Every structure is written in C-alpha cells, then in structure tokens.
Amino acid sequence: MAWKTLDDMELGGKVVLVRVDLNVPMEGGIVTDATRIARIVPTITDILSKGGKPVLLAHFGRPKGVVVPEMSLAQVVPALQAALPQTKVIFARDCIGGPAKEAVQSMGAGDVVLLENTRFHAGEEKNDPMLAASIAALGEVYVNDAFSAAHRAHASTEGIARLLPNCAGRLMQAELSALEAALGNPARPLVAVVGGAKVSSKLELLGNLVIKVNHLVIGGGMANTFLVAQGIEVGKSLAERDMAETALEILAKADLSGCEIHLPIDVVVAREFKAGAAFEVVESSQCPADAMILDAGPATVAHLAQVFAAARTLIWNGPLGAFEIEPFDAATNAAARQAGALTVTGKLVSVAGGGDTVAALNKAGVADQFTYISSAGGAFLEWMEGKDLPGVAALKG
After folding, report:
1. Which of 102, 193, 306, 377 could tie 316 with a disulfide, CB 3.0–4.6 Å?
2. 350 within some domain
C-alpha cells in the first residue's frame, strides 16, 4: 500500500482540504439520492475526531468553467447538514479567494466548510497550477476521498495533491483496498463478469482482463457479438458485426493466456422488447431469424453457478441481459444471488462496479451481500483496464 491513510496523518488544529464526490442526483433543487453524501461521512467524522478542520472540495455537473447557478453546490448543503447533524456546515460562494478564505477563517471546532463547485473555474479540468495553488493555500493537508473522480487529472484531484501532505480518505481507502484484493493480488481462481451492450466500449477492459483472470464471463449484447464472430447467427439481436474480428482476437488472446471465456449456452429470445413479452428459451446457436436475444438462459445460469462456486474472487461489471425489464432480468438476478450467497458464507470475495451493475445488484436485492460495490463508474472501469489513475498516482507521491 503505497499511499497513506488518515491513520498516518497528524491533523490536530489543521485545515484539511478533502476532495469528495457530491455529484448527486437532484430534482427541483432537492437531493433525491444521498448515497454519495452518506459515504463521505466516515472521513469527515474521523478528521473532526482527530482535531482537523474539514474543508470540502467537489464538482457538480459540467458547467465548463463558468458559473451556472443551477449547478451550485449550495443546493447540496441541506442534505449534507442532515448527514452531519452534530456539525455546522458553512458554505463558501467560491473555492478560492476572499469567500473561501473567510469561510475557512470563520470555522469553529467541529465545523465543516463546503466550497463552491470547483468546475466553475476553467482551470479545474485543465489542472491549472495556479488554480491548484490557490486552493492549496487554504489548507495544510490534502485528503482525496473521491475515487470516482480519480481518473481525471484535475486541479482538485491531482494538482493539489502535489502541493500538500496527502492521504486517502476512508472511502478512497476502502475502494483501493477492495480493488487491490480483486485485481492486484487476488485469491484464485479469479472470475470476471463483463456485460453490457457493446464490445467497442469495453475493448481495453476485455484485453486487460484476459491476461489477468482465470475465467471471463461475457454477457449482454456483447455476448452476441462474440457469437456472431464464431459464425452463430443471432437474428435481430443487438450485435456489433463490424467487431467480429476484434472478438476473435480477444478469444485468441484468452486462449494464449490460459483464460477460459464463458459465453451463453442457452438464451432467452423474444420478438418484442417490452415488459412481459412472450419469450422462449433456445440454445445459443438456435436464435430464430425474427427474434432477438434478451437474456442468458437457465442452463447458462447453472453453468455460471458452478464457475462461481469454484472461484475465490469475482469482479463484476455489467448485466447478463436486459435486466431493466422482466422477464429479461432473470439471469442477472440469479447469478447475482449466487455470488451474494457465496460471499456471505465467506467462500468468495466479490467486487462490483459501474452504474448498470450497481442498479442490477440493487434490483436483485444482493448489493449488501457483495464484499464491495464501487459507486465509481469511469474510474472503476479504468482501474479494471489496467490504467494508472492520476488521482491515485498523486497520492503515492
């Protein structure tokens, strides 16, 4: 573990700049899902307990370097205050300059400051050294607790870390520890489930995984592309036929590295894509010309149950079918519940991430059974692709 944690830092009396993820869903100026706020509370309370003064940095939306009132973090203050009932939350109308300095100077013991949207400054996404220095001047220690933004080399995620003593917050620490257990030094056999619509969007991911995992399960529309590459017709199913050669290259690479790829044995097909549509289960090679594949079948699920049962570590990104509507959520739900049950009994370390994945696991009712679920979309994917994340690299000095 090359990065420090809050346990390694002396924070007594110091102003601690904390990069957090407050890019929460809003409706009518009200936070509709406070999950991301709840997940930063342990870091804030730990800093306070160590005598530090937390000053929060965050972005909201894509204002592209100009002030957009609808993207002000002021609207997040009530939800943040509700998550920290014993704490006074002070809002600063800017993340640099007079408003920021005044807010920090006004802090009493136990107070928290939230600075305005860092992306109101064009220098944020450009990782401008002047902006980073201006923000860094407000504090004495930098804590990054926003793994979800760690794949961006921005002023508040990378620039400031180069200027101040730094460490990972509790959420970042949990995320990095979970990912290290899953891909860095995993217990084997290691299984990866990769689903979703398009092979083209996950090329780097697949290329990296086939040289690292023992088993790669491919589901969703991506699986159709692999079936087509092997000369199997998939009717009206979603498939990237122009990616067939690439799919064959991935299969060959997997073969060379000793990675076993698992594609659907049987599939659920329908003539229309709607809830409750009439469907049938056929072998994966027998999709009718006028039908489309919308889920993996029961034989595939039974096969995956055996693969999971023999595994020690599982990484999951993407559903196995059109999980959003019934009855095409069956394979994703069944496989997720199997993974959850194995995790609960201590037989499996399971790490999942990506927006659709989190939604699918919540729908299956097993999100709380997985070892760790990452709320970071792009950062989680880039980590799985084997890329160095700027926000993490900066913490390593």
Report:
1. 193
2. yes
Contact 122, 68 (CB under 8 A): no
Quick check: is 227 in a domain?
yes
Torsion on CA atoms 179, 196, 205, 161, rounded to nearest 10: -50
Q: Are 185 and 308 in contact (CB under 8 A)?
A: no
Assess if residue 346 is contained within a domain.
yes
Kindly state whether residues 248 and 118 are assigned to the same domain.
no
User: Mean pLDDT score of the chain, rounded to an integer?
Assistant: 95
What is the reported pTM? 0.86
Query: Given a cut of 90, is residue 201 above it in pLDDT?
Result: no
The pLDDT tens digits of the residues spanning 116-135 come to: 999 999 999 999 999 999 99
User: In this predicted model, what pLDDT tens digit does every residue of 63-92 receive, in sequence order?
Assistant: 999 999 999 999 999 999 999 999 999 999
Q: What is the DSSP letter of 182?
A: I
3-state secondary structure of 9: coil
Active site residues per annotation = 36, 198, 355, 378
Last residue of a domain, one of 170, 197, 223: 170
Residue 68 and residue 155 in one domain: yes
Run of H or E residues at 42:
helix 35-49
Residue 176 belongs to a domain: no
Supply 209's token pair: 């995984």
